[in-house]
Amino acid sequence: MIDSKQRATLLSIASVLFSFAMIGLFPLVGWLIEHHNFSFAFGTIGGIILILYITTRIKSRTVLK
Predict the structure, then answer these.
(1) pLDDT digits over 14-62, tens only?
(2) Chain centroid to CA 33: how far?
């Protein structure tokens, strides 16, 4: 188990990193919606997330072998 102080620090760091990611992503999504439409914006984001997921799964399998 993780010590309470370390757990609080890790949760705080995760929260800050999430906030920084959203600072960059929200304007990008807004721009995509403004210049295209909701379907295109969320489809593009979904495609990027899917590609990242697949590549990380492939890399994790090759590392574990």
Answers:
(1) 999 999 999 999 999 999 999 999 999 999 999 999 999 999 998 887 7
(2) 19
- Tell me the C-alpha distance between 38 and 58, whole Å: 30
**Tokens at 23, concatenated:** 């600072």
| Residue type at 62 in one-letter notation | T
The SS3 assignment for 20 reads: helix
Measure Cα distances from 61 to 48, 51, 55 in Å. 20, 16, 10
Is 45 within 8 Å of 26 (Cβ atoms)? no
56 vs 8: CA distance, rounded Å: 27
CB-side neighbour CA atoms (13 Å) of 18: 6
